Amino acid sequence: MTTVDPAPRRRMRADARRNYERLLAEAATIFAEHGVEASLEEIARRAGVANGTLYSHFPTRQALLEALLRDRMQALSDKARDLLDHPSADEALLIWARAAMAHTTVYRGLVTSLMRSIEDESSHLHAACQAVLTAGEQLLNRAQAAGSMRADVTASDLYALINSVSWVGEQTSPAQGERLLAFGIDGMRSATDSR
Q1: CATH classification number, 61-194, choose in 3.40.50.970, 3.40.640.10, 3.40.718.10, 1.10.357.10
Q2: Contact criterion met (CB below 8 Å) for 4 and 73
Q3: Rounded CA separation 181/166 (Å)
Q4: For the segment 114-142, what is each residue's pLDDT rounded down to a tens digit?
Q5: How far is CA 40 from CA 15, 58, 114, 187, in A?
Q6: Comparing 99 with 16, which gets the higher pLDDT?
Protein backbone atom coordinates (compact mmCIF):
# COMPACT_ATOMS: atom_id res chain seq x y z
CA MET A 1 0.00 0.00 0.00
CA THR A 2 1.28 3.45 -0.88
CA THR A 3 1.53 5.82 2.04
CA VAL A 4 1.55 9.57 1.73
CA ASP A 5 2.91 10.26 5.22
CA PRO A 6 6.53 11.10 4.37
CA ALA A 7 8.01 10.88 7.87
CA PRO A 8 7.11 9.19 11.12
CA ARG A 9 5.84 11.60 13.76
CA ARG A 10 7.26 11.75 17.25
CA ARG A 11 4.77 11.54 20.07
CA MET A 12 3.48 14.99 21.06
CA ARG A 13 2.70 16.24 24.54
CA ALA A 14 -1.03 16.53 25.19
CA ASP A 15 -1.05 20.34 24.93
CA ALA A 16 0.99 20.26 21.72
CA ARG A 17 -1.40 17.66 20.29
CA ARG A 18 -4.40 19.88 21.17
CA ASN A 19 -2.73 22.88 19.51
CA TYR A 20 -1.95 20.80 16.43
CA GLU A 21 -5.55 19.60 16.15
CA ARG A 22 -6.97 23.12 16.72
CA LEU A 23 -4.66 24.51 14.05
CA LEU A 24 -5.82 21.85 11.56
CA ALA A 25 -9.48 22.46 12.40
CA GLU A 26 -9.13 26.23 11.99
CA ALA A 27 -7.10 25.81 8.79
CA ALA A 28 -9.86 23.63 7.33
CA THR A 29 -12.48 26.24 8.21
CA ILE A 30 -10.50 29.25 7.01
CA PHE A 31 -9.31 27.56 3.81
CA ALA A 32 -12.93 26.58 3.07
CA GLU A 33 -13.98 30.21 3.60
CA HIS A 34 -11.09 32.03 1.92
CA GLY A 35 -9.00 29.51 -0.06
CA VAL A 36 -5.52 28.14 0.56
CA GLU A 37 -3.87 31.55 0.35
CA ALA A 38 -5.72 32.70 3.49
CA SER A 39 -3.72 34.27 6.30
CA LEU A 40 -1.74 31.79 8.39
CA GLU A 41 -1.70 34.37 11.18
CA GLU A 42 -5.52 34.33 11.16
CA ILE A 43 -5.43 30.54 11.51
CA ALA A 44 -3.15 30.86 14.55
CA ARG A 45 -5.32 33.61 16.02
CA ARG A 46 -8.53 31.61 15.65
CA ALA A 47 -6.84 28.54 17.09
CA GLY A 48 -5.81 30.60 20.11
CA VAL A 49 -2.08 30.04 19.66
CA ALA A 50 0.91 32.22 18.86
CA ASN A 51 2.22 32.42 15.31
CA GLY A 52 5.36 30.65 16.50
CA THR A 53 3.27 27.67 17.60
CA LEU A 54 1.74 27.43 14.14
CA TYR A 55 5.17 27.60 12.50
CA SER A 56 6.67 25.06 14.91
CA HIS A 57 4.04 22.55 13.77
CA PHE A 58 3.85 23.69 10.15
CA PRO A 59 6.97 25.53 8.94
CA THR A 60 5.33 26.33 5.58
CA ARG A 61 1.87 26.67 4.09
CA GLN A 62 2.62 23.49 2.11
CA ALA A 63 3.35 21.60 5.35
CA LEU A 64 -0.01 22.72 6.74
CA LEU A 65 -1.78 21.68 3.55
CA GLU A 66 -0.03 18.30 3.57
CA ALA A 67 -1.18 17.60 7.13
CA LEU A 68 -4.69 18.81 6.35
CA LEU A 69 -4.97 16.76 3.15
CA ARG A 70 -3.09 13.62 4.24
CA ASP A 71 -6.17 11.47 4.84
CA ARG A 72 -7.93 12.72 1.69
CA MET A 73 -4.90 12.00 -0.48
CA GLN A 74 -4.49 8.56 1.06
CA ALA A 75 -8.18 7.87 0.39
CA LEU A 76 -7.70 8.89 -3.25
CA SER A 77 -4.76 6.49 -3.58
CA ASP A 78 -6.77 3.74 -1.88
CA LYS A 79 -9.73 4.38 -4.21
CA ALA A 80 -7.46 3.86 -7.22
CA ARG A 81 -6.25 0.57 -5.77
CA ASP A 82 -9.83 -0.56 -5.11
CA LEU A 83 -10.88 0.39 -8.65
CA LEU A 84 -8.26 -1.94 -10.12
CA ASP A 85 -10.91 -4.66 -9.61
CA HIS A 86 -13.65 -2.72 -11.44
CA PRO A 87 -14.95 -4.70 -14.45
CA SER A 88 -14.40 -1.79 -16.86
CA ALA A 89 -10.88 -0.36 -16.92
CA ASP A 90 -11.87 2.89 -18.62
CA GLU A 91 -14.90 3.40 -16.38
CA ALA A 92 -12.65 2.84 -13.35
CA LEU A 93 -10.29 5.52 -14.65
CA LEU A 94 -13.16 7.98 -15.15
CA ILE A 95 -14.58 7.28 -11.67
CA TRP A 96 -11.16 7.91 -10.14
CA ALA A 97 -10.54 11.04 -12.23
CA ARG A 98 -13.85 12.48 -11.00
CA ALA A 99 -12.88 11.71 -7.40
CA ALA A 100 -9.48 13.33 -7.97
CA MET A 101 -11.19 16.39 -9.42
CA ALA A 102 -13.46 16.65 -6.37
CA HIS A 103 -10.38 16.40 -4.15
CA THR A 104 -8.52 19.20 -5.92
CA THR A 105 -11.43 21.60 -5.54
CA VAL A 106 -12.07 21.10 -1.83
CA TYR A 107 -10.37 24.47 -1.17
CA ARG A 108 -10.15 27.38 -3.60
CA GLY A 109 -6.60 27.67 -4.91
CA LEU A 110 -5.62 24.12 -3.94
CA VAL A 111 -5.24 22.99 -7.53
CA THR A 112 -2.46 25.56 -8.06
CA SER A 113 -0.60 24.28 -4.99
CA LEU A 114 -0.93 20.69 -6.17
CA MET A 115 0.38 21.51 -9.65
CA ARG A 116 3.39 23.32 -8.20
CA SER A 117 4.07 20.56 -5.68
CA ILE A 118 4.25 17.71 -8.18
CA GLU A 119 7.22 19.46 -9.81
CA ASP A 120 8.88 20.66 -6.59
CA GLU A 121 10.56 17.79 -4.76
CA SER A 122 11.25 20.05 -1.78
CA SER A 123 7.52 20.74 -1.27
CA HIS A 124 5.84 19.11 1.71
CA LEU A 125 3.05 18.07 -0.68
CA HIS A 126 5.34 16.47 -3.28
CA ALA A 127 5.34 12.93 -1.85
CA ALA A 128 1.56 12.93 -1.45
CA CYS A 129 1.04 14.27 -4.97
CA GLN A 130 3.46 11.69 -6.34
CA ALA A 131 1.56 8.90 -4.55
CA VAL A 132 -1.71 10.09 -6.10
CA LEU A 133 -0.08 10.32 -9.54
CA THR A 134 1.27 6.76 -9.16
CA ALA A 135 -2.16 5.50 -8.09
CA GLY A 136 -3.77 7.07 -11.15
CA GLU A 137 -1.02 5.64 -13.32
CA GLN A 138 -2.01 2.11 -12.31
CA LEU A 139 -5.57 2.73 -13.52
CA LEU A 140 -4.30 4.36 -16.71
CA ASN A 141 -1.97 1.42 -17.41
CA ARG A 142 -4.86 -1.00 -16.93
CA ALA A 143 -7.05 0.98 -19.37
CA GLN A 144 -4.19 1.10 -21.87
CA ALA A 145 -3.65 -2.66 -21.55
CA ALA A 146 -7.38 -3.15 -22.21
CA GLY A 147 -7.00 -1.07 -25.37
CA SER A 148 -9.41 1.65 -24.31
CA MET A 149 -6.87 4.43 -23.74
CA ARG A 150 -4.15 5.67 -26.09
CA ALA A 151 -0.73 4.18 -25.41
CA ASP A 152 1.01 7.58 -25.56
CA VAL A 153 -0.96 9.08 -22.66
CA THR A 154 1.16 9.36 -19.51
CA ALA A 155 0.23 9.63 -15.86
CA SER A 156 1.55 13.19 -15.96
CA ASP A 157 -0.88 13.94 -18.80
CA LEU A 158 -3.74 12.56 -16.72
CA TYR A 159 -2.64 14.54 -13.64
CA ALA A 160 -2.37 17.73 -15.70
CA LEU A 161 -5.79 17.15 -17.25
CA ILE A 162 -7.46 16.62 -13.88
CA ASN A 163 -5.82 19.69 -12.38
CA SER A 164 -6.52 21.84 -15.44
CA VAL A 165 -10.22 21.04 -15.59
CA SER A 166 -10.41 21.40 -11.81
CA TRP A 167 -9.04 24.92 -12.14
CA VAL A 168 -11.63 25.73 -14.81
CA GLY A 169 -14.36 24.29 -12.59
CA GLU A 170 -13.12 26.41 -9.70
CA GLN A 171 -13.14 29.56 -11.84
CA THR A 172 -16.48 28.92 -13.57
CA SER A 173 -18.65 26.09 -12.25
CA PRO A 174 -18.10 22.49 -11.16
CA ALA A 175 -20.40 21.38 -14.01
CA GLN A 176 -18.11 23.03 -16.56
CA GLY A 177 -15.08 21.30 -15.03
CA GLU A 178 -16.90 17.95 -15.14
CA ARG A 179 -17.84 18.51 -18.79
CA LEU A 180 -14.25 19.32 -19.72
CA LEU A 181 -13.00 16.26 -17.82
CA ALA A 182 -15.29 14.05 -19.92
CA PHE A 183 -14.00 15.71 -23.11
CA GLY A 184 -10.40 15.26 -21.97
CA ILE A 185 -10.86 11.59 -21.10
CA ASP A 186 -12.59 11.04 -24.45
CA GLY A 187 -9.56 12.60 -26.15
CA MET A 188 -7.33 10.06 -24.40
CA ARG A 189 -9.31 7.10 -25.70
CA SER A 190 -7.63 4.90 -28.27
CA ALA A 191 -8.80 4.95 -31.87
CA THR A 192 -9.86 1.30 -31.49
CA ASP A 193 -12.19 2.10 -28.57
CA SER A 194 -15.75 1.84 -29.89
CA ARG A 195 -17.27 4.73 -27.90
Answers
A1: 1.10.357.10
A2: yes
A3: 8
A4: 999 999 999 989 999 999 999 999 999 99
A5: 20, 10, 18, 40
A6: 99
